[in-house]
Amino acid sequence: MSFLAQTMRQVLRQVPSRTAALAGGMRSLSISPAFLQQNKPATESVDISAISKDQQKECSNICERINQQVAKSEQGRLFAVVHLCGKQFKITPGDIILVEGYWPPTIGDEISLDKVLLAGARDFTLVGRPILEPGLVSVKATVVEKTLTHTKTHFRKKRRKQYMRINFQRSPNTMIRINSIELARPVDGNSEAEVEPSKRLF
Amino acid sequence: MVFLNLALMVRARGPDEFWRKRRIFKLAAHYRSRTRNVYSFAIRSVHRALAYATKGRKLKKLDMAQLWTTRVEAGCQQYGMGLETFKDGLARSDILLNKKMLSDLAIWEPRSFEALVNISRERAAVEGLPDIKRRSAFNQVYGLRNLKLD
Amino acid sequence: MSNSHLFMKSGFPRAPLQNGLGRYVCQLQRITLKFCKNNGSSRGMRDFIENHLVDFAKENPGIVVYVKPRRHRTPVLVGEYLNGDREWLNCRNNTQEEISKWIDLLKTQNGSSSSLRLRKMWHTDVPSIQGPWTPFLLRSPETQGQVYPNTEASKPLETPQSATEKLIELFRQQQLEAGEEAHDLLSKKRAE
């Protein structure tokens, strides 16, 4: 009985603070659209009915506000965190990033970077688990330069052991220019099941 | 090099002394004192410098990793969260941002970082991880009002 | 070479003239192939000129190709770029495949890159979109007008619950439960 009372109190304590957070602006909003992975049935089986109504409403409200902002194109410049050749880069339109090592695309190729881990703007952040739904954010880029690095001298020496080796190496480098980052389609509201805070009330 | 007789040519090994030394002196051009001008000193320091440069390329990567860890730790400490709990919470909610990106976000996009901290904190609370009730070291933290500390 | 080496400059990744933002412009403008007609060291170069050079010129109409035979000299590749750089490559005893690889490198790079040590693998003009972190980011504005010493600010963050407080809370909980039980009883009786 006391346990029940405690949880009730907790819920009551949570609700006003949550609304206050919302009223404070969309500063720290975070939603994760459902990228349903095949190997994770546990996350798929989240029951929407188990989530309280006001939480669902809150989530759809957030999605709607983001969509409105995008529709009016007030979202400003977007940034994204992409996974490219085993490394993660935080990029925004106009950036230059370098890929180290052998990478097939040649100069003038226009590519789209699909593994977007996180996308954000001034007022909202979309967090992927681990990557955003394909097609939600489109990142376009152009390959600008393919070249070799400067000559790196690989020199090893052991004192008093007559051991000395010297090698020279140059590795390929690819320079990529980011052309655009865009929200391709509206953030869908049916992904509330995946939004993080709602899991709290189970 | 001009050899006046065969015996001298047989004795001479490797490239000409002048060019061999000049290669080393070129690398030692900015050294101070006799390490710049005396070959026996110059070659010692040039060899040491090259060996350091080879090792330094690996050390730089380790140093950067350490720096990112420090930055991420400072970033989540301002919301009263430990680094391990933060990383664990993110990993358990399938967010696979690496240390470099987290530290970048903490510096350049603090609002996104705050959102990540919120997600991680919620996940840690759901999974019952220890160490989520710790208050921040900063006394008057504005963002704490938005965080659910209970 | 060591990083503090005098003759190796260091720099940051840059692309010339916003290249790649609109359309991509190939930066190589001229390429000169110098070779000897009968010396063995330019055999690969001669093979390349016979077999692939015309195709290369057709594929890249933007690049001017010069071929310059000269007697008893090693074969050389020279590329000239839009930014005024000039890359000189010695191709002594190189095979045909090696030469086509080097030409490909000359074509794909933006200038002579061999002498520049890159310090970063990333360049941006807009590092921050939400505004960078500052020490005042999470501080409330009230701290500005605070007068020290301040009793409120000098309290510890977390005071452990004392035994008395614990007892009081337990007592209150009991009261609450008892109250609820009484409430239940009352409602039952009302229902009856």
Automatic annotation (TrEMBL), chain A:
Annotated PANTHER family: 50S RIBOSOMAL PROTEIN L21, LARGE RIBOSOMAL SUBUNIT PROTEIN BL21M
Recorded GO MF terms: RNA binding; structural constituent of ribosome
UniProt keyword list: Ribonucleoprotein, Ribosomal protein
Name of the protein: Large ribosomal subunit protein bL21m
Family in the record: Belongs to the bacterial ribosomal protein bL21 family.
Entry GO CC: mitochondrial large ribosomal subunit
Species whose genome carries this gene: Drosophila kikkawai
Any GO BP annotation: translation
One Pfam family of this chain: Ribosomal_L21p
Top-level taxonomic group: Eukaryota
UniProtKB/TrEMBL annotation, chain B:
Keyword Ribonucleoprotein in record: yes
InterPro entries to which the protein is assigned, alphabetical: Ribosomal_bL20, Ribosomal_protein_bL20_C
Residues making up the signal peptide according to the UniProt record: none
GO cellular component: a single term: ribosome
Keywords: Ribonucleoprotein, Ribosomal protein
Keyword Cell membrane appears in the UniProt entry: no
Lineage: superkingdom: Eukaryota
PANTHER family: 39S RIBOSOMAL PROTEIN L20
Name of protein: Large ribosomal subunit protein bL20m
Taxonomic source organism: Drosophila kikkawai (Fruit fly)
Gene designation per UniProt: mRpL20
TrEMBL record, chain C:
Domain Ribosomal protein/NADH dehydrogenase intervals: 37-110
Keyword field contains Repeat: no
Record key words, sorted: Mitochondrion, Ribonucleoprotein, Ribosomal protein
Annotated GO biological process: mitochondrial translation
Gene Ontology cellular component annotations, sorted alphabetically: mitochondrial large ribosomal subunit
MF GO annotations: structural constituent of ribosome
Keyword Mitochondrion among record annotations: yes
Family from the record: Belongs to the mitochondrion-specific ribosomal protein mL43 family.
Record's protein name: Large ribosomal subunit protein mL43
Organism: Drosophila kikkawai
Lineage, broadest ranks: Eukaryota, Metazoa, Ecdysozoa, Arthropoda, Hexapoda
